[in-house]
Each structure stands twice: as structure tokens, then as C-alpha cells.
Amino acid sequence: MSRRRVVLTLPVAALFALTACSTESADSTVDVTGTDDACVIAQDIVDAGKVGFEFTNESSKVNELYVLKANGDTLGEVENVTTGTSRTLTVDLVAGDYLVRCKPGQTGDGFESPFTVTGDGGTAQAEPDREIAFEAVDFEYENLDLTGIADGDTIRFAMDNAGEQAHEFEVLDPDGEPIGEVAATNPGESGGATMTFTAPGVYTYQCILVDPATNEPHTELGMIGTFDVADG
Ligand SMILES: [Cu+2]
Predict the structure, then answer these.
(1) In a domain, 124, yes or no
(2) Concatenated DSSP letters for 130-172?
(3) Does the pTM of the predicted model rise above 0.70?
(4) Domain membership flag for residue 167
(5) Ligand 1: distance of its center to the CA of 161 in Å?
(6) Among 3, 44, 110, 145, which residue's beta carbon has the most beta carbons within 10 A?
(7) Number of structural domains, the chain?
(8) Residue 67 to residue 184: CA distance in whole angstroms
(9) 203-219 pLDDT, tens per residue?
(10) What's the pLDDT tens digit per position in 169-182?
(11) Residue 64 and residue 12 in one domain
């Protein structure tokens, strides 16, 4: 409904580009609907490969969708999906157990539904060469050692939230494009994400969640920094 209205306002060229992009990049699609109290996936068995999650926000708040491994590691997300609109999140999945999570209001635990991927398709995420474990507190990352990362490395980041607010760990490449993130993790909980570095240069890590007391993003309160990725 409102999706159609939004699409019709786009120039024709943009419309074609969007259509081509969303149909060519996914091997299959599955609908996910976010409401004020649920995250509903239309099928609980999905074929392995590049899966386009067509997310429609039917909740009364701005929503976001995450695709997670069953262990909670983040594989992909879309944010800032306004009420009545749809966005597609494409994630390459091999056989295994996964979750979709919607977060109406973009805060708190959100709502989950499990699903299973079957078949031989998909490209398995590279096995991590090593793990970097650290803690998030209000408002910094502690024991975070980002030295010695080289182009071509695959690293699993494991974050324990020892603070009193939710925190995330997003990594941006030298062009400022996100390459992955440990999704927002509640106090006392742990999160993870595996990222592969495919170019040398200066990368940024950050938490852009907002502190309710000051209305400042955590980046402004200290949760941002850079690190070097060496030639591989
Ligand atoms: Cu934070």
C-alpha cells in the first residue's frame, strides 16, 4: 500500500535499478512481517543460497530486521524501516538453524522467529582465523585489541556487554561502508559477528545507539575508534 506510493514517486530509472537489484541478487525470497508484538516469517524452511528477506513493517513504530545464526551471531540487518514500508535484506545462507529478529522502536529485545535452511546452496561464511573478545561498558570498549589484522583475515568479534545500556560494535571499511556488526546486545549478554577484511586501510568501529540520559549517540560519548588493516 504505502510501499507502492513510495515506489511510484521514484524516477523510472531508479525503479528499474531497484527491481533489477532485488530480483537478481537473491536465489529465493521469503516474506517477514513485523508487528508491534511479533516477527513473523512466512515459511520456516528456506532453501540454501542467497535469500531475500522481504521485510514489511506493520508495527506502529520504526522497525529493524536482523538475520542471526542460532547462536546469536549477526549475519545481516536493515534499520529505519518506517511503518507501512518494506525493505529487502539479502543474506547468503548455508544449511543450518537461524532466527529472524524484529525490533519495533529499534530498541529492547524485539521479537524472534526461528527458521531452518536446507539444501546444498549458499556460500559458507569463512571460518574465522581467530577471535577477538572484548567488553562493552558505558561508554567504551574494554580489552579491545585490534592490532595485527591483515587484508584477507576473517575474525570473529565476541562482545560481552558489562555496561548498563545496550551496546553494539559496528565496523566500517576505509570508504565508510559497514562490513558487519555485533548487533545491539543487552546488559549482561554476549553477541558476536564474523567479518572478513578484503582491503587494507583504516577501519572504524563504533556504537551508534543513543544514550537516553543525554540523547547523545554512544559515538559522541567515546564508543568510536579506528584501527589499521595491513596488506595481506
Ligand atoms: Cu554503546
Answers:
(1) no
(2) EEEEEEEETTEEES---TT-BTT-EEEEEEEE-SSS-EEEEEE
(3) yes
(4) yes
(5) 9
(6) 110
(7) 2
(8) 13
(9) 999 999 999 999 999 99
(10) 999 999 999 999 99
(11) yes
